[in-house]
């Protein structure tokens, strides 16, 4: 029962969900705040829409390709460390055995226990390397499609998240009306998003929803104030 | 020698550096691309500056507070799992011993080795729980100030990264000139940033610098094209 709880937590916060949350968090907040900021500084919706769409496209590409690069880097890092562990196991096995023993020593395992474990691990090079990757370096084998999937998911989530607040300016005729509708609509979206995000990550949903909504509104209010000052 | 290499890698990619990279990656790219997009669609620098500053403030708060929430969530998650492991060790010790054995069974450790390890671990509850946190759940104790530091570092890096490309519009008198200076200046900044980022994360510096620069320029070109279409 308890073990299955652990397992559930791990399943829930999958790579896909994590990426949706990353993209949607910024997507719902930044274009909304930018549009809100411009609403206090310009007189026509069309500039807000142009700027909003430019921002969404820029953010989408920057975050999507950023996610792609991060995924690739993670994979290359894993592979180069894997190669290094294979080299070490082949060329300095006694040193690697000592590393195994050191790991177990920190957990209070006796000298003879350390010795036994190091020798048993050393019987199978692949498993030994797996062990070192996970327990010495804390690295898990990344999913091969992670980088590409990450890019698409983060980018799409940012795009959708950004269009929601901006859409209010399509259907209104002044920045002030646009801002009112956008703020109302985005507050609801932020709350709903924050609620599910918190549920998924195991936080208290209402408290989490309030936090996410507050950040969005704070960002928008700050952008509005600064843009009014600058313009 | 080889072990000290591992260690170096870990030291280098510290939380601080990671946060600077997160903030600076988006900060150098998104405000630059937004300004570039607007340059093709509006006729005065002042709107670009207003929109750029609104974006930087919005992004700064969204990313900074987002980093704060993420850090807090990580810490709460760690603490709730820690509590759960202490409960399990106290109330279902045999089940926990079986989990220890299962972990080592996957690495080809013999039944008697598993038994020895599980029994030795069980002598010290704190170390046993530490072991389960790291090796069953893959969780490391987060730094207590991580959330606050993360927020400040990411926010500041985004702010500085965003002001660099935008500054070109302060010193020029038309969007076209602003865009030219900004693109030139930002290309250099992206390259330098990509170079050091790659060095720090152990990638090939020149290849990494080119990738980072390309993403920034792609985002700007896409924003420029779309903004021209929409306006």
From TrEMBL, chains A, B:
Q: Give UniProt keywords alphabetically.
A: Membrane, Transmembrane, Transmembrane helix
Topology relative to the membrane, per the entry?
A: Multi-pass membrane protein
Output the Pfam families linked to this UniProt entry. VIT1
- Chain ranges passing through the membrane: 20-41, 47-70, 151-172, 178-196, 208-227
Q: Is Transmembrane helix tagged as a keyword? A: yes
Q: Where in the cell is it found?
A: Endomembrane system
Q: Which domain of life is it from?
A: Bacteria
What name is this protein filed under? VIT1/CCC1 transporter family protein
Q: Which organism is it from?
A: Pedobacter albus
